[in-house]
Amino acid sequence: MNIALFGKLIQLLIKEKMAYRGDFLLSAFAQIVSYGGEYIVIWLFMKRFPLLAGWTWPEIALLYSFGLLTYAIGASFSFVQMRELEGQVRQGTFDNLLIKPINPYFYLISRGFNLAYVAHITISGAVLIWAIGQLNVQWTLLNWAYVLLAVVSGAMIQAGLLTAIGAATFLWVRAGFLFTIFFRLKEFISYPLPLFGTFIQLLLTIGVPLAFVNFYPAAFLLAHDSAPLPGWAMWLAPLVGPLVYGLGYLLWTSGANKYQGAGG
Amino acid sequence: MDSFELHRYVYKLPVNAFREQLRFCMDLLSVGEFAHKPVRQLSLGQRMRVEIAMALLHEPRILFLDEPTIGLDVMAKDQIRQFLRAVNRKKPTASPGRNLPGRSLPRASLPGALPDERRYGVTTYMMFAVKSFTNQLAYRSEVWLRLLGNLLAILIQVEIWRAVIGSSGQEGASLDQMITYSILNPLLLALLSTNVSEAVDSSLKSGSIATELIRPLSYPLYLLAGSLGLSLYKLAFTVAPAFALAGLLFGVLPPASPMNLLAFVAALLIAMLMSFLLGYLVSLLAFWLMSHFALSWMLGGLITIFSGSFLPLWFYSSGWAAVAEALPFQYLGYVPAAVYLGTMTDEAMWRTLAIGLIWAAALLLLVRWLWSRAVRRLIIQGG
């Protein structure tokens, strides 16, 4: 079955990584240093300016970690796979995937499943746990369930958007520039949404719903103003993920079905 | 065609001899019909013929060909063989490699004597800078994208400063100053991001480093020229327009004084040199670690923390500020912007710039030493 196949693939990938253990660990360490740098700069900033749009340092740390954690989970299933799609379509190696007797999307994402995001997950998870400890939140069962759902949903939003960009590859072949836009927009959600103008707020809520990844869930948990949407918007957060991911998947499969090769 | 010209500079060929040899090769290989097409639009056979012509331009005494006709059709094979025969007739002393079907010669290996001592003029390297500049012109459609990306990065920082400083500006810097700081810094980062370590890494992995080292010119200077061309391209097509646009959108202060402008240009040059040297340092260390990714990530992290690119050093708590001031990374962000705004006293400013030059010189010595070690190591590994 598919799950068994996925397990087998993961097993092989771990084996592959462990063959160059030193290199893998060094890269993981370097990524932790790199993201640690981002955290340190924000921390230095918050030391000097204790409130950013009404948010304190542990709150910003929670917001940032939510974004990074969901990105790491979502991207391990999508980013590198979708980025390399362009080369595969151009060189025709994508055809190899289509003749396998399993769902090509499933095969693509599991074969390319990226273990390198372990570093992202380690640092964002650690800071997230620290931030939760610092914050004065009533940790009811409902809140825990909500956090869990929000993480899953956030990861699905990120993966769904990256998948949709991958689908654009079938249409235009050259779609790498969309990743650049995605990462630029993702920078906005490191900070509370009310900092930015209405246009950016609406863009990140409706157009590219990245605000549902971390801002709306965090605003709910921390009882902050969740403008531009009313308070009940937080219940949308767990729904937006499956919706975006489903749309991304549909776009991808319909793109793959129309795929005729890059020509030549 | 440009590549041929470039080759003439690299091997210091006299113009006439170059023209004659080029005509000879182009006629026999019928390169003429596609000489002006960009390389990536050529077919395999066309590319192979161009490469052979290129290899013969400086009339080498010996030429090794490793399966030069592999993957080509019968006609192209025949043409290449005829051409090699003609070359042999023209210069009987030359001994071109064999290209019998099914028989391959060992790959040309790196000779023990590396780039010879001939001194190359600035023009040769200028040609590489120009080439790297014009290569970028092929990505003209991405100009808008980079412009937009720069503006978004600026927008985030501007909004943050608007939120925390307000109009009062009690925090030691006025809002206008912080907005200017936020416009300068993302653009500095965009300007300074080099592709040196990626370039060295990919030529190490593909083995093309061997041919790059074989050329009679200094590899580090060749890299520097390439990165300079890239920076000039970015300056002209993305950084300068983004600066103008951001100035219109958010408002930008002029340099504090003409002297500050002068010092800013000096700081910019130091920053470009230092950014190149740091990227090059990482790529040299990759000769030992076999991958530059980990080091590039770490360097990126250090730059994020200590460059003061987002948060000016004057907002750092005293311990962190002291560390940042003792490190060279501040020259990649904080120093040029602070010089532009004139937040330092004149004396402190010139002293900082002088220390920056010392840092650059120290880095230069370090990379020179590492480079000589790295080349030796490469030979020992043997391609």
TrEMBL record, chain A:
<keyword id="KW-0472">Membrane</keyword>
<dbReference type="Pfam" id="PF06182">
    <property type="entry name" value="ABC2_membrane_6"/>
</dbReference>
<keyword id="KW-0812">Transmembrane</keyword>
<feature type="transmembrane region" description="Helical">
    <location>
        <begin position="24"/>
        <end position="46"/>
    </location>
</feature>
<protein>
    <submittedName>
        <fullName>ABC transporter permease</fullName>
    </submittedName>
</protein>
<feature type="transmembrane region" description="Helical">
    <location>
        <begin position="144"/>
        <end position="173"/>
    </location>
</feature>
<keyword id="KW-1133">Transmembrane helix</keyword>
<feature type="transmembrane region" description="Helical">
    <location>
        <begin position="115"/>
        <end position="132"/>
    </location>
</feature>
<dbReference type="InterPro" id="IPR010390">
    <property type="entry name" value="ABC-2_transporter-like"/>
</dbReference>
<feature type="transmembrane region" description="Helical">
    <location>
        <begin position="193"/>
        <end position="212"/>
    </location>
</feature>
<feature type="transmembrane region" description="Helical">
    <location>
        <begin position="61"/>
        <end position="80"/>
    </location>
</feature>
<feature type="transmembrane region" description="Helical">
    <location>
        <begin position="232"/>
        <end position="252"/>
    </location>
</feature>
